[in-house]
Amino acid sequence: MSRPRELSATVDLFPARTPTLPPATHTNSYALGSRDVLLVEPATPYEDEQRAFLEWARSLSSAGRRPIAICATHHHPDHIGGLEVLARELELPVWVHTETKKRLAPSLQRYVARELEDGDALVLDGPIAQSWRVLHTPGHDWGHVCLHEEASGTLVVGDMVASVGTILIAPGDGDMRIYLEQLARLEALSARLALPAHGDPIDEPSLLFRKYIVHRQMREAKVRLALERATAAPGGGAGARAVKTGGVTLDELVSEAYADTPVHLWPLALLSLRSHLDKLAYEGLATQNADLWHAGRAQS
User: Fold this and answer.
1) Confidence band (pLDDT; 50, 70, 90) for 240?
2) Is residue 130 situated within a structural domain?
3) Integer angstrom CA distances of residue 83 from 79, 93, 218, 247
4) How many whole angstroms separate alpha carbon 172 and alpha carbon 137?
């Protein structure tokens, strides 16, 4: 893996090894700007990788580029593993969304100098002046942000999509309904290049955003069908109204709704399944009773 990679006069990519979910093994950091530089994703917790990151960041000065801040797209460990060391060694302030700051340990919160909000403009002066607009894009994580540079059509997408593997929407941190809404928002930007945290840069990102939406909709349809089959009494006949039985557990549902997924991935699939069910419950299409799930609204 070659690093750093110069993608343009204003964007460099630096992949660093992190404890991320397979098949990904690295998290991409980016240097944005032609003179003032924003370093995105202080990701790696590993000392050898941190040393390499510091060497890269300090080398930017040889090209007349000066890091002014560090930004993390969200609080997951494979995105902030080096926050304390890199901020301290480079003597740079940290910029994160307000919701991300809330989720940082107190020892890390003290490095946060700017709390980002949706619509903020991050202006980077230089021979090629840039203004990166902050997009608050919860769904994968409550404090997740993307950065959009409209003039070049470039979009830093963090963990909204990836060009290697997929994106986990886990209960607690994530919300499937909001995630799909934010994917549609990103699709509508018609960006020309997306910079993900995992994998190579993405040409024609709107096509990938749409692919992700369609895939999640397909999976939701399978979850609904599995739920309806599992909770409908037999013998009702075609067109008959389903009669609720004792309900079905997540383990029972995953074997049907994720039958196309390798069994060793079912522990992760269970998290996605729960997120789909929470979305269906919000929409009145599923009901939870203790550890059991039913199709449709709760019976009065």
Assistant:
1) very low
2) yes
3) 8, 10, 37, 45
4) 16
